[in-house]
Amino acid sequence: MSSLYIKIADHNCKIIQVSNEFLPLLLERFPLPDGQVDGHDLNLRINHGYGTPFEDYEVKIIKKEEHVVYLRKDYFIEVDSCFRNATISAYDELALKHALMNLYSSFILHHNWGLLLHSSCVMDGDQAHIFAGHSGAGKSTAARLSAPRELLSDEATLIKVTDHSIRIYDSPFRSELETAGYRGMRL
User: Fold this and answer.
1) For residue 111, what pLDDT is reported?
2) Residues 128 and 90 in one domain
3) What pLDDT was estimated at residue 184?
4) What Gene3D superfamilies does the record tag this protein with (predicted)?
């Protein structure tokens, strides 16, 4: 496979290697960058067949001088200390989805770009509204009941924080609801 580029918020990720089992998920969930990609923010290798089925959300973090490892029973992430090159090995699509959320959340925090919040978010005109809470609290239900407002996320909201504004981005990290595909809405 030649390299594949995916876009998450403002970031282009170059997929250097991906197992065939995971390619459909990436193509379905993650938009491709518009036009020619001049640069990228993260190199990523994605492997299938690591570990055992999902048991719990506990992630062990091992920090070393040259890299950081995120270890869960169903996935393994190794990322260099600059958060530019990473390898994910995952048991199945659920594990890959969780690993990508973990990696991207760590990536944007490391680069002081913003944060990924466990929440749903809808757009109302040029404003975004976030519904946050623990699993099972009704975030997706609140977003669904907010129709006809457009959905930006139903599981994890991408929030960019700058000195001058806070912006919300369409999230590829979603459960079952389709999003409107907007980027950069004001909070």
Assistant:
1) 97
2) no
3) 53
4) P-loop containing nucleotide triphosphate hydrolases (3.40.50.300)
